[in-house]
Every structure is written in C-alpha cells, then in structure tokens.
Amino acid sequence: METLVVDHPLVAHKLTTLRDVRTDSPTFRRLADELVTLLAYEATRDVRVTEVTVDTPVAPAHGVRLAKPYPLVVPILRAGLGMLDGMTRLLPTAEVGFLGMIRDENTLQAETYATRLPEDLSGRQCYVVDPMLATGGTLAAAVQYLFDRGAVDVTAICLLAAPEGLAYMDKVFANTGKPIRVVTAALDERLNEHGYIVPGLGDAGDRLYGVV
Length: 212
Ligand SMILES: O=P(O)(O)OC[C@H]1O[C@H](OP(=O)(O)OP(=O)(O)O)[C@H](O)[C@@H]1O
Ligand SMILES: O=c1cc[nH]c(=O)[nH]1
Ligand SMILES: [Mg+2]
Known about the structure:
The protein is of the alpha/beta class. It has helices spanning 9-19, 25-43, 84-90, 137-148, 163-172, 204-209; strands at residues 2-5, 49-55, 60-66, 72-77, 95-96, 98-103, 110-116, 125-129, 132-133, 153-161, 180-187, 190-191, 197-198. It is built from 6 helices and 13 strands. Strands 1, 4, 5, 6, 7, 8, 9, 10 and 11 form a 9-stranded mixed β-sheet that branches.
C-alpha cells in the first residue's frame, strides 16, 4: 500500500483550524470541503485518461480526457459526505456510490448498514472519502467491498490518519496485489484508549453534522 501525506502550507493551515475545538460546524464543513479538493488534486495523479485531439481556433492540439468508465467516488457515511462536494467539483463526471458504515464505540468494529453502488465495478478506479482513518477497520471493510465487486484500484482520501490504521491496512491487503493508496493531510501520533486519533480533531461526523 502506498501512503502520501500531502505536505503543503495551505493544507497545514486549513487543517490546524479544522482541529481547533473552537471551530464551529459551518467553518468545519467549509474547511473539510476545501481540504478534500487540495488532497484530491494529488490523489488523482494516476486517474486514467485517453488521448484526444481538439481543434483550437488556430490548429489541432493533442490533449487528454478522463477515460471511461469514469471514476467512482465513494463517501463513507456519515462523515465522508462532508468530502463529497469537494471531490465532485474536481471530478464532475465521476459517479458516486454510497457506503454507510458505523464503528461500534465499544468494540471498535465497523458495521455496514447501507450500500448503494453499481453492482459491477470491473475496471473501475475508486476514490473512497472518509475524514478519519483510525483503527483502519472501516476503511479495510470498504476497500474489500469494492474489490469484491471488481474495482481495479482504490485510493482513499482521509483528512487524518493514525499509524495503527495504516499498519492495519498494510497487513490486511499485503498479499492482494491490488493497488491501494491512502492520501492524507496528516499522519498523527497514535490512537487513544477509545480509538480516537491523537491529537486528531475529535469525532468528525459529530463536528460536521451534530452529536447523535
Ligand atoms: O478507522 P476506524 O477505527 O474504523 O474509524 C474511522 C471511522 O469512524 C468514523 O465514523 P463513525 O463510525 O464515527 O460514523 P459517522 O461518520 O456516522 O460519525 C470515521 O468517519 C470513520 O468512518
Ligand atoms: O478520532 C476519530 C476516530 C474515529 N472517528 C472519528 O470521527 N474520530
Ligand atoms: Mg462519528
């Protein structure tokens, strides 16, 4: 598995405000949206394109367009929804599939409660968006689900990742031979005893949408 921590002062600046406990929900939403667009710019470096020629007013010009089938963006509900608009702004032709997953706060096991994606993902590049990669249980289950449906490669875009979660992803997918990338704005120190990322930003879903 390949991990990319995007090292850019604008990303660091926005992430610092996102972490701040005093940042209110409207500002948190706006910053999550802005951050995903910056991360997606890096995460889509390998997006598949086909060569085309267009006529400028002066002469033919060689260029590229996104190849079909178009990428599939998969937000993991609930918190991943806060990253969807930023992705589709950058990839307007992308299709969107939804995975609803919740982590049991006691066992830290991920449970899938909703799936709404194309049945056949053969040949698809998939971009999973979820702000938090903590134990990695949620992302590993999501990636496995996409591979089971035929996805060719999966890139996960996370705002924050914990070393434990990256290690878990590495272990689970070590021998699959399928390309997996994680693109994140920061690699934090560790998880605490409740499975929260330290220093992290708290519960991303609650900060985006309110405490449930
Ligand atoms: O790496 P893990 O240990 O599996 O934890 C990460 C998951 O936890 C959060 O979702 P949560 O379960 O809080 O659901 P929510 O988005 O509905 O709040 C987060 O958005 C990830 O999906
Ligand atoms: O720190 C964490 C860990 C899991 N989920 C969150 O929203 N935050
Ligand atoms: Mg949550």
